[in-house]
Amino acid sequence: MSRASARGASTGGGHYTPTNQWLIPHHADVSALLRDRRLGRTYLHRFTHEEFGRTPPPPSHEPFHTLNDHGILDLEAPDHTRIRRLVAKAFTPRRVEELGPVVERIAHRLVGDFVAAGGGDLLAEVAEPLPVAVIAEMLGIPETDRHLLRPWSADICGMYELNPDEETATRAVRASVEFSAYLRELIRARRRTPAPDLVSALIAVHDTDGTTLTEQEMISTCVLLLNAGHEATVNTTANGWWTLFRHPEQLALLRADPALLPGAIEELLRYDTPLQLFERWVLDDIEVGGTLLPRGSEVALLFGSANRDPAVFEDPDTFDVRRPPATNRHVSFGAGIHYCLGAPLARLELAVSFGLLLREAPDMRLLTEPRWKPGYVIRGLTALQVEV
Fold first, then answer.
1. Rounded to two decimals, what is the model's pTM?
2. Quick one: pLDDT at residue 232?
3. Hey, what's the torsion of the CAs at 156, 87, 136, 193, to 10 degrees?
4. Domains in the chain, please, with CATH?
5. pLDDT digit string, tens, across residues 229-266
6. Looking at residues 204-212, what average pLDDT do you find?
7. Which three-class secondary structure state does DSSP give residue 121?
8. Is 298 exposed, middle or buried (CB count within 10 Å of its CB: 0-12, 13-18, 19+)?
9. Cβ–Cβ under 8 Å, residues 309 and 316
10. Residue 139 to residues 151, 347, 378: CA-CA distances in angstroms?
C-alpha cells in the first residue's frame, strides 16, 4: 500500500496534481474494504464537508452532484438500503431474463451489419450501441432519442476520473441538466400512461411501509443504470477483443469450443479490468496492512491490481480462457452493498455479442493497433479497427 502514487488531471506542461489517496493493491484488502462500513462512497450521511475537512464543490457543479448524490452508487445506509431495495423490486432477475430476446435481436442486427460491411470500428459500431440500445429499450426511451444517451453518459462519467478539470465539470453539468430534464418529462408521461418498461416499474414500486422513490431518485437511478450499465460492457467488449487478438492461441481455443465462452468472459473481466479503481472515504480510523488510515482520508481500491494478485490467482499475468470460473474471484463488479446491480445484464450482453462475433466473423482480425483513452479510472480504447 502506498500514498498518493496515482496521478490526477494534468495542469499543463506535463505536470499532474496529486490525488492524495491511499492506494490499496491486494485482493484480500480490496475485497474486505469493499464490505467494511468504516469506509463509504460518501461521508455526507455523517458529516458536513467542513466537519470532514473537505472543501464543498463549487455551486456551479450543483446539477451534477444532485444527480449523482441521489443514486445508489454514491449513497450509504439508510438511504442506500431503501433505494436499492425499491430498485431491486423493479429491476428483477426475471426482468433481466426477459431482456434476453431483446439483447439477441439488437446484437444480431449490429453484428449482421458489421459483418456485411466487412468490418470497421468494432467499438463504435457494436460494443457501444449494444448496451445503450438495450438499456434504452429497458427504460422505454423512444428510438428517435437514443442518440442522445451515449454523449450524455460520456460527459457525466468524465467526473469519475481523478481530479477532473473545470472543462470536464462544465460538460458534466450540462449533460446532467439535459438528461435530468429529459427523464423528468419521461417519468411524467409514464405517470399519465404506464408502459411495460422499467421507468413505469420504478414509479409503481413501493416498500412495505408505503415508501416510494422520489422523482429525483428515479432520475438518478435511470442515469446510473445507463452509465454503470454500459461502461463495463463497452470496455470489456473492446478491451476483450484486443486481448484475444494479442493471444491468438486463446482465440483459437475459444473459436473451436464455444462452451468456453462463459469462463472466457470472466477471464476477460479479470485480465483487463474495465474499472481500474474504486474510491472510498475513511469514515472512522482503520488499520490496513499495519498502516493507520485516519478518518478523512481517501482510498483508491485498485481493482486491476487485485485481479492480478498472485495470492489469489494462479499465473495471474497469464490470460487463460480455460481458467475455471469457480476459481476466478475477480472484483470487477465490486462487492458488498455496492456490488453492481447490472452484473447479470452485463454478462448476458457480453455472452451474446462475443458469441455472435465468434460465429459470424470467424476470421476477424485487427487492422491497426488501438490507442487508449487518457483515463486512470475507466480503462477503454478510443477505437478498435478490424476486418472480417
1. 0.93
2. 87
3. -120
4. 2-387 (1.10.630.10)
5. 788 899 999 999 999 999 999 999 999 999 999 999 99
6. 88
7. strand
8. middle
9. yes
10. 17, 19, 24
